[in-house]
Amino acid sequence: MTELQTVPPQGSSISSRKADHIDLCATGDVGFRAKTTLFEGVELVHDALPELVVDEIDTSIELLGKKLRAPLVIAAMTGGTERARDINRELARIAEERGYGFGLGSQRAILKGEPRETYMVRDVAPTTLVLGNIGGVQAKSLETSKVLELVEAVSADALCVHLNPAQETVQPGGDRDFVGVVGALERLVAELPVPVVAKETGCGIGPRTAKKLAKAGVRHVDVSGAGGTSWVAVETARAAGQERSLGVTLRDWGVPTAASVLITREARPRFKSIIATGGVASGVDVAKAIALGAHAAGIARPVLQALLSGGRDGALAFLDRVESELRAVMLLVGARDVRALRRAPTLLSPDLERWAALASGGWKK
Length: 365
Fold this sequence. Notes:
By secondary structure, the protein is an alpha/beta fold. The chain has one domain (about 15-365): TIM Barrel (Alpha-Beta Barrel). The chain is built from 15 helices and 12 strands. It has helices at about 15-25, 80-100, 110, 135-140, 145-155, 165-170, 180-190, 205-215, 230-235, 240-250, 255-265, 285-290, 300-330, 340, 350-360; strands at about 40-45, 60-65, 65-70, 70-75, 100-105, 130-135, 160-165, 195-200, 220, 275, 295-300, 345-350. The strands form 3 sheets. It has an 8-stranded parallel barrel, surrounded by 6 helices. A two-stranded antiparallel sheet has the order 1-12. The radius of gyration is 19 Å and the shape is globular. The N and C termini lie far apart (about 40 Å).
């Protein structure tokens, strides 16, 4: 087994931590090792008579009140440093041109006095669906008016409240008190004038979590499941001593992305928006996520890596491939639009069938 990479922390500030995160996500060994997204356990049924014209397939959707040209979100990654500013602005510019959604990284740095300019993208993405971002632990200690200030500071169309207890438990100096996050979500859903999205950070959403979210009035989720980037692994690379040992043990912790989509699909009352992030790396993954019940898919680390290795052209080439694959799969299952793709028949592996059974029965417990 490859020895876990170590990156000595650059400092104790949030901006230093964010710089570490960018470096690790760009080139580090921070993926899950044994656990996958389980998208390989989803088989879509071929239709040899689709009766469709490829160029007329409609990939557009409406998400959180805005129309997207394709069911894609360049998902939350970074903020709080000058390098993050450049990354955010370039990716937001691409999202504007391509008609995707765009997610900002955690805005916690703004609360700590770091420059808010690193999150400013509206001038290059005036019509884009922009998602703000704050941690659930931070949200519980902030008045709604202060949270709204964070939303307005970046002109966000919606706010992601991220849930990351596994990451925080391993992170040097991370949060340890998670009491009150459900109440904060319930309050923000009721009081904020923009949609609230409950977003995990690479460990997925299981039945108990989905049930709590639905009961709290949350109607939009980003499952951010296991199988892609392990944020436990990211923090483990920065940790030492007991935290490092714990991170090694918990590296593969979480609910796979495909399973998280199945689980949230079964929520009652239903979630209006399910975004599937976490290890989504191709148009085939996007199609499978939607066929399982997602409304859109988010891609984070692969876009960042394409941008940092190949510049703007590299990121565009990667996204061209994703869209081309998605359109091809839609043709081959006979789906003329995304709504039809959500109804496409699927065959599930035994592992996913077990998760599906848990999803359907989890609401009774």
